[in-house]
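Many introductory courses stop at the sequence. We go one step further.
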Amino acid sequence: MGLFITFEGIEGCGKTTQINLLAEFLSESNFPFITTREPGGSSIGKRIRGILLDTENKEITSKAELLLYAADRTQHVETVISPALKEGKTILCDRFYDATTAYQGKGRGLDRKLIEDLNEIASGGLKPDLTFLIDCPVEIGIERAVKRSNSESPEEMRFEKEALTFHQKVRAGYMEIAEAEQHRIVIINGNRQVEKVHEEIVKIFLDKTNDNKESIKGKQA
């Protein structure tokens, strides 16, 4: 089995940039890996992503939004993530169920137990081996995200257009999750030079890889 690594954070935190940099490192180091994302990591998921992020879809209710993310995750895990892990590949995933807990739970105020149950069902019990939570001040992240989306994907700005208070709640939600799962989640200061952030992530990744190898050796002994 490969490693399942997720990247989380508020809009504009820099996680996608860091995924791409880590992917370059893995490619140069001959690590077998894939990069993927939520929503939209599968062919069907891409259609769901279009619904979820389209600025025209203002009428989506919070619960419908939650269920669409769950549907996307179910398809993603069953058709992309699990098969790749069985092939021994490392997965670099841009968001996973922590995002649902932070955005739909803390941000939208939906029932936490409902979200936890849906996350368990949608993921099939699959949990990330390591999660990088890229953190930065909300104001900085949103400014970056709006600039990026305006130039790259202006049609996918439904969340960028949420009130600042919503994004502050999301960030608070991420911090609560990180506090509760310190064994899995590493908070990375994303308000630094991109290369400095990358260097820290590579070091943590290599440490985790070595720990994983030692665990496998121990089971075989």
